[in-house]
Each structure stands twice: as C-alpha cells, then as structure tokens.
Amino acid sequence: MFFRISARTLFTRIVSVIIVSGFIGSLFGQTFLAVSIVSLCLLAWHYNHLFKLIKWLWQGKSIAPPQANGIWGRIYDGLYRRIRKQRLKQKQLNERIRKFRDGAEALPDAALVLSTELIILWGNKKASKLLGVRWPDDIGLRIDNLIRFPEFYKYLGDGDYNSPCLITSPVNNELQLELRMMAYGSDQILLLARDISKIQRLEEMRRDFVANVSHELKTPLTVVRGYVEMVQASETALDPHWKKAFTTIETQVSRMDRLVEQLLVLSRVEHNVDADNHQEVNLSRLILMVIEEVQWLNQDKNHNINHDINHDIAPNISINGNEHELKSACLNLISNAIAYTPANGIIDIRLRNDGNKIRFSVKDNGPGIKPEHVNRLTERFFRVDKSRSRNTGGSGLGLAIVKHVLNHHHGELSIESDWHQGSEFIIYFSPEIAK
Ligand code: ADP
User: Fold this and answer.
1) How many CB atoms lie within 10 A of CB 34?
2) What is the average pLDDT score of the chain?
3) Which residue, by CA, sits nearest to atom 20 of ligand 1?
4) CATH topology of domain 278-435
5) CB 417 within 8 A of CB 424
6) By CB distance 3.0 to 4.6 Å, which of 119, 220, 256, 359 could disulfide with 354?
C-alpha cells in the first residue's frame, strides 16, 4: 500500500481544524481560547507519538511499531514496511554468504579471505588443518604473523601472485603446501593452500626412478660398447654382413649412451644437487671454451660460426653460478644450432650486457620452428620432427636441461623463430647473479 501526502493537504487540514475550532469558539465568544486549546491538543498528540516512536526505536524489542491512527499510523506503517524489506534483503544476503561458505568448506583446499592489508577476514576448516589459521578466533590477525616462513615473506614482498609459493605446513612439517593468492572484489584477497605432498613424493619417485635406471643402464652399455669396439678392431676381417651388423650396433649403442648421459644430466639438474656449488663463473671464457669444443661437431656441417666474445675485450661478463650446469646449457643451445641447421649455415653467438641483464644468444639460419611448437620445446622428450631429431642424435632432453639450469640461475629462455628463416635462442640472466 502506498500512502502519499502533500504539503498542501497537510496545510489544508491544519487550517480546517483551526477554522472549525475558531468557529465553535466564536459561538461561545472564546475564539482565541478554542483555537489555542485545539492547537495544544494537536501538539500534545504529536509529541506523544514522537515520544512513542523514540521509545520504540531505542528500546523496542518487537519489530512491529506502536499502533496509531492518522498520519502517525501511516508513518509507522511506512517504517514497518522498510524494516521488513531490509530484513528480507538481509536474509537473502545471509543465505548467499552461507552458500559461499558451504562452497568454500567443500573445497579440498584451505581458503582464507584477507583484506588488502593481509588481515584475516574469514577461513574454512581446511585452513585450520593445513595452515593453523582458526576462524573466527584468528579474525583480525595479519596472515604473516601466523605463517612465518622466509619464502612466504619473500612471496608477499615480491607481490607477484601469478606463480605459487611453496611452503611446509606450519602445523605439520610432513605436508608440503602450494599457496596461491588472488585479488578479488575491490579490496579483498583470496588465499588458497593445496596439499601437494603426494604429488611431490610421486615426482621425487619419478626422478629417482629415472636416475636409477639411467645409472644402471650405464654399465651394461659400456660393456656392450667395449665388446663391439673390440670386435671391430680385431685383426680378423669380418664377414661384410657382420660388419654392417656391428656398425649398426655401435651407432645404436652410442645413441643410447648419449640418451642415458642426457637423462643423468637432467636428473642431476632436476635434483639441483649442485645448489651449494655456486661460484664466480667467467661466462666469456666458458662460452669460448664451448665454441672450441663444438668444432668437431661442425666438421661435417661446415657452418660459419661467428661470435663476438673476446675474453680480452669483455673479460668482466661473469655471473655467480654452477660452471658445469651453465656449460651444459650453453653447449645444448650451440650444438642444437649446429645439428638442426643444414650444412654451410651461419651461426651467430653473442654475449653482452643488455641494460641491467646479461644476454647470451645463439642465432642460426636453419629451418626455424613453427610458432605452435615454440612453447613446448622445453618439455622433456619433445621433438618437433622425431625422425629428423633422431637422425641428429637428439633425445628431446637438451632444452629441458637448459630450462632447469636457468631456474637455478635466475635466468630466462626466450625463443624467437621464423619458420624457414632460422631461430634465435636467447638466455637472459638477471642482475641478481651478475658479479
Ligand atoms: P634434442 O636432443 O632433440 O635436440 P632439444 O630439447 O635440445 O632436444 O630440442 C628439442 C627440439 O627443438 C628438437 O628436437 C628440435 O626439433 C627443436 N630445436 C632445437 N633447437 C633448434 C634449432 N636451433 N633449430 C630448429 N629446431 C630446433
């Protein structure tokens, strides 16, 4: 029901009351007295209702307002309607919040809602199991007062929430957690923590398995290779049929040997066994050494290998890292350029300080790589053209090794390639590791 009252109606009513009371008063010769008494009664009536309204607003227990007639009845009705509307909205909002919380409780992950100042606003039950953050007891506390790990502080400090942060659970040091934070709404942050202990254990098992198998394969391969070489070197001439067979065995054993060697290198860099073995590495000297070493690979291809690295001119390009791993990364890029570029190609190798980063690049005028393959090149065993790669003795592990080495050295790999035009593989080392 909608009640409309205008200023004109109000005015007409007051004037009518005054005229009527004045008229009645005039019948008794007391016009002024009659008007005054009626006005006072009107005022008292209004004050009485104002008083009731204030009492109801401040002390009333029921949502139903006091009963009244006339204009005050309308006022109370209006207020009552508003309160009911508000209650309905509140109920709907509570229902939505309850549904959101039920949904968040059903998540297999710990979920926390934080303010932009990292104050805890809400958390699900999993958050208390995985992170030790109890809701509602810990409301109002800062999350970094409860999760006190240097890696978490660094994650918050960097403010780059695109990648996850890995920590050990503050309540159970056997659990490994992956934390992700994302801003939502205008002033809230959602923090999700997932238990990745099982995945990590499986990943570790896989790495150990590959490392052990590769290691175990090494000895039998060496023995087979030794015997094949012995037979090939023997003075007695072999039947041409057997000669061909032994040559094939030798080629395949060498391929397998290279594969096992690459697998061992990959498992070493994956385990990051040389993490503590970092020292100053003179990149200029190291790359010159690699260029020297790959000359024998270039014998058949006869590429024109150019470089601008002169240890005497730029002796100061050094970084802090593991020499063995860095050499392996550079060697992989240069030997790929040699292997995949058709004979008599041009390979340019550059090393320079580019702004505040160190840039190492290997550019060739080989077949190039299709854009859809570029992102997959660093996956283990990924080869664009399996038969071509097999012919070049490729295992698909070289760039995976490069990726892991760069992860340990704050480095980034950028691949620029035009199909049929050539490729450029660029490594950027961040200034953090520059000496
Ligand atoms: P592989 O041992 O097979 O060379 P990599 O991981 O080093 O393995 O390289 C992955 C794939 O990337 C290769 O199989 C090849 O198809 C492609 N690739 C790498 N470098 C080049 C290059 N310079 N030019 C063209 N293709 C390349």
Assistant:
1) 20
2) 89
3) 336
4) Heat Shock Protein 90 (3.30.565)
5) yes
6) 359
